[in-house]
Amino acid sequence: MSESVLCLRDLRVRYGSKPPVLEVTSLKVAAGEVVCLIGPSGAGKTTLLRLANGYVGAENGELEVLGSTIRFGPGEVAARRDRRLRRRVGFVFQSFNVVERASVFRNVVWGSLGRQRGLGAVLGRFRDSDRRLAMDAIAEVDLIEQTTQRVDTLSGGQRQRVGVARVIVQQPDLVLADEPVSSLDPVQAAEIVELLVAAARRHGATLVMSLHRPALAQRFADRVVGLRAGRVAWEGTAGALDDAAIASIYGKELPPPTAGDLP
């Protein structure tokens, strides 16, 4: 198997005095994989991604991201993530996380800020190479005609394409996507997931994304991890994700549409 780019070992995350929201004994993601996280609301999908990106910490356990090990527990202080590691991890947000009043180009070229140094980073001055990279990414997500438009004039699907293009410009080795299509209709959702997967493969990145619809995981993932009540309830290839597996993940909750219900 290829080297792992993301490993979780004996990790427990809780918020305040509440019960744990995530308890993972062992989970690995290999380089180049497309892994989809599915499960009911509150299953721990977002927490897992936020933990991997450094947005939240853990009560105990060990997290390895792109070869850097971060340990949590009594008497241990989690290693601070340096600038280089942060730049190597890209994040696609559920709410698009774009600057509405800025143009498509400005939003996309900002993806290169992690490579800027000194005054250039403060003033947002970009090199010609970064501008070319931004234009290439905009073309890759099929938004060339909207390059100079303000983002608040775009549709939801187009705004998420801006988010994908910005991550492409960042040039990460690991891309995390938190419910990137939850607010889109089935047709747009399939297009964005297909775009994300194609971009990850084209640029040699590993992709881990949470999805509300198991059908999209069946269609696009290499491997699926089903979370329920903060624990791994099922893990296997996308082809093995049948109705019985979906039922074991979602329990009595009504699962989202199956593959046959999508275009």
Topology:
Layout: E1 4-13, E2 22-30, E3 34-38, H1 45-52, E4 60-65, E5 68-72, H2 83-87, E6 89-92, H3 104-109, H4 118-123, H5 128-140, H6 156-170, E7 174-178, H7 186-202, E8 206-210, H8 214-220, E9 223-228, E10 231-237, H9 243-250
Parallel strand pairs: 3-8, 3-9, 6-7, 7-8
Antiparallel strand pairs: 1-2, 1-4, 4-5, 9-10
Helix pairs in contact: 5-6, 6-7
| Low-pLDDT stretches | none
Number of helical regions:
9
Distance between the termini: 33 Å
Mean pLDDT: 90
The coarse silhouette is globular
Radius of gyration: 19 Å
Question: Which sheet architecture does the biggest sheet show?
Answer: 6 strands, mixed
- State the secondary-structure class: alpha/beta
Give the H and E element order.
Answer: EEEHEEHEHHHHEHEHEEH
Percentage of residues in DSSP E strands:
15-25%
Oligomer: single chain
> What percentage of residues falls in helices of 4 or more residues?
25-40%
Number of strands: 10
Strand order of the largest sheet: 6-7-8-3-9-10
Explain the overall architecture.
The protein is an alpha/beta fold and 263 residues long. It is 32% helix and 24% strand. The protein has helices spanning 45-52, 83-87, 104-109, 118-123, 128-140, 156-170, 186-202, 214-220, 243-250; strands at residues 4-13, 22-30, 34-38, 60-65, 68-72, 89-92, 174-178, 206-210, 223-228, 231-237. Helix 5 crosses helix 6 (156-170) and helix 6 (156-170) runs parallel beside helix 7. It is globular and about 45 Å long.
